[in-house]
Amino acid sequence: xxxxxxxxQDIKKVLITEEEIRAKSKELGQILTEEYAxxxxxxxxxxxxxxxxxxxxxxxxxxxxxxxxxxxxxxHGGTESTGQVNIIKDVDSDVTGRDxxxxxxxxxxxxxxxxxxxxxxxxxxxxxKIVTLVDKPAGRVVEIEADYTxxxxxxxxxxxxxxxxxxxxxxxxxxxxxxxxVYNN
Length: 185
Hints:
Elements: E1 11-16, H1 18-35, E2 42-47, H2 51-58, E3 66-73, E4 86-89, E5 99-107, H3 111-121, E6 127-135, E7 148-152, E8 158-159, E9 175-178, H4 180-183
Parallel strand pairs: 2-3, 2-5, 5-6, 6-7
Antiparallel strand pairs: 1-9, 3-4, 8-9
Helix pairs in contact: 1-2
């Protein structure tokens, strides 16, 4: 029987605790509640990474919302964006005249959200806003900013709370820095 390896052994350090994520999600939820009262916005979760943040965030939004999901890929298993954004699953709803809120786990290079914003502007929504749990401005290669940001983080390889390395570590309840030896092998 293979010995179980705990995920924590691969963590260099915890950057954002579960409690900090919960508190920031509550704060952002309250802001969205005020801004979107009586507007019924569509929250678009960018899969797969946004799921933990989206699930925590919507618990704190006290107005009507609709949920949609997209599958968009730009990493393809590596540690850096390939620069090519592929839409694997688009939203199912007509977004014409609707308020849209993209929910992201991280903005790094910014390519994915820039491409999504440009695509959705052509669909004539009432508005487009971006909420991200973490923003890594040092990784940015295009001009884009979130409208609402949970945490600004250093240029390190982050995992946990939706953030992954090769589809692993998303289930950590916090955001940590992955040890370099894990992805340099």
